[in-house]
Design brief:
Radius of gyration of chain B: 13 Å
Helix content of chain A: under 10%
Number of strands of chain A: 12
Strand content of chain B: over 45%
Number of helices of chain B: 0
Helix content of chain B: under 10%
Order of helices and strands of chain B: EEEEEEEEEE
Largest interface: A-B, 23 and 25 residues
Radius of gyration of chain A: 13 Å
Strand content of chain A: over 45%
Number of helices of chain A: 0
Largest sheet of chain B: 6 strands, mixed
Oligomer: heterodimer
Order of helices and strands of chain A: EEEEEEEEEEEE
């Protein structure tokens, strides 16, 4: 079945540091890939998405590229801020299965 | 416009009792999803509804769990004879229609605690 594996947290960075959160997936079809973010005390929000190989999703300075050859969708940001502190979830939606399959989540803590 | 709303925000119940959780999707969204977020299992899909089609119940963990969607809008997730392992945050999401490219908008969740 489908699965998503993401790096375990927590990840602790200083402000303005470079961020990478790794995400790899297993899917039987041609999935769409997503990053969702959950800020403290808030609900899940879509951060970015990519629907086919080599697509790059971007939003709020975050980027992720759909790499079919490595089945990966790593999240990156060049300079994190304290306000980026949150839990980040990688997810996929596979062909024929409309629900999202989520990774376990990675908690990011950015220190001033 | 209003987002996805869920009620109650918190529910504490005793083992063996039945509970009902409510979800109001975004107006005009035809697809509605239920997920469960727990410490041990992460975010798990439970069930989804698309228009008038038969729901996909493949994620329901046992026959104690059921859900319905009335009039293509509001949905109720019912858990019968609750167990302690049912304690989790239950999330509802909606999208314009079910499909790979349709963003799912999540509600704030209902935190269920079974004593």
């Amino acid at each position: 079945g489908d699965s998503v594996t993401q790096m375990e947290g927590p990840v602790t960075l200083s402000e303005e540091a470079f961020l990478t959160i790794n995400c790899t997936y297993t899917a039987t079809g041609y999935p769409s890939l997503f990053w969702y973010v959950q800020y403290p005390g808030e609900g899940l929000q879509l951060l970015l998405k990519a629907t086919k190989a080599d697509d790059k999703g971007s939003n709020k300075g975050f980027e992720a590229t759909y790499r079919k050859e490595t089945t990966s969708f790593h999240l990156e940001k060049g300079s994190v801020q304290v306000s980026d502190s949150a839990v980040y979830f990688c997810a996929l939606s596979d062909t024929g299965r409309r629900a999202l399959t989520f990774g376990s989540g990675t908690r990011l803590q950015v220190q001033p | 416009g209003a987002g996805v709303s869920q009620s109650p925000s918190n529910k504490v119940t005793e083992k063996g009792k039945d509970v009902e959780l409510r979800c109001d999707p975004i107006s005009g969204h035809t697809a509605l999803y239920w997920y469960r977020q727990s410490l041990g299992q992460g975010l798990e899909f439970l069930i989804y509804f698309q228009g008038n089609s038969a729901p996909d119940k493949s994620g329901l963990p046992s026959d104690r769990f059921s859900a319905e969607r009335t009039g293509g809008s509001v949905s109720t997730l019912t858990i019968q004879r609750t167990q302690q392992e049912d304690s989790a945050v239950y999330l509802c999401a909606s999208s314009l229609k079910a499909g790979d490219n349709n963003e799912q908008f999540f509600g704030p969740g209902t935190r269920l605690t079974v004593l």
